[in-house]
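User: Last request for today: this protein with coenzyme A, please.
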Amino acid sequence: MSATILTNREHPYLAVVAINRPAKLNALNEETIHALHGTLKSLEKDDSVRVIVLTGMGEKAFVAGADIAEFMNFSMDEGKELARKGQEMVFDFIENFPKPVIAAINGFALGGGLELAMACHFRYASENAKMGLPEVSLGLIPGYGGTQRLPQLIGKGLAMELIMSGNMMTAGAALSCGLVNKVVTQENLLPSILTVASKIASNSSSAITAAIKAVNAGFDFEKNGYDTEIKSFGACFGTGDFVEGTSAFLNKRKPKF
Ligand code: COA
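Assistant: Here's the final one, the structure of the complex with coenzyme A:
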């Protein structure tokens, strides 16, 4: 796998995936998008991985955006293709990933970096993190799902203000509007995410996959979220995890998923 992505498997059931271009503040170039897709695909198939944590190498940035140097001479068609391919290979792929993907925002999360964090199922940030969508300062709009996911997460008015101004938000402001779930010191970021990730990994992975699908269906205009929930709820009754979870409860023991 390319060195633009590093995967750490030292914690049971967890994979910590880091974007590794710290000299360019982990900006997403084409190679990194492909490498991230490849890494996620192999983690999807790996039964020993139950939760994925996504972060950036170095102390300064999660990801400072799409690589501006790479796309500055693109035509309209190339720009459209950049957004389409990126959304398909990474951003939508993560949002609909069958295993939980948690963003550990360890510094700047700008443009495509914030869009990457927003595609994850939820986010923790370090106190030094700064988040924003500065694309309009480059004559662009967010192209990796930012115009859709930011209003979903923080509401339309605040999202409009951030997108139009290109302003950066502090970690504290991101916490107060629900963009991130928790803010901790930089040194406590991975430990606190690993704590919640371990708790998640102890639960039924088939039930978690069904929950991701049902929650996401509510944000998809072509789907009926309630209907997806009913079907997914029913499907849980056919899983081994359901038999294990309910029998463990009734026999007063811990389930083994
Ligand atoms: N694309 C390409 N390269 C980037 C980048 C991006 N999105 N963000 C940072 N870099 C590069 C810089 O060009 C610089 O490279 P160099 O050392 O070869 O000159 C290096 O990363 C360090 O960045 P620098 O700007 O020197 O750091 P800083 O601390 O002064 O500023 C930021 C940090 C995040 C405020 C600034 O890098 C920035 O505004 N980045 C772009 C953010 C953006 O507009 N993202 C949306 C893109 S669509």
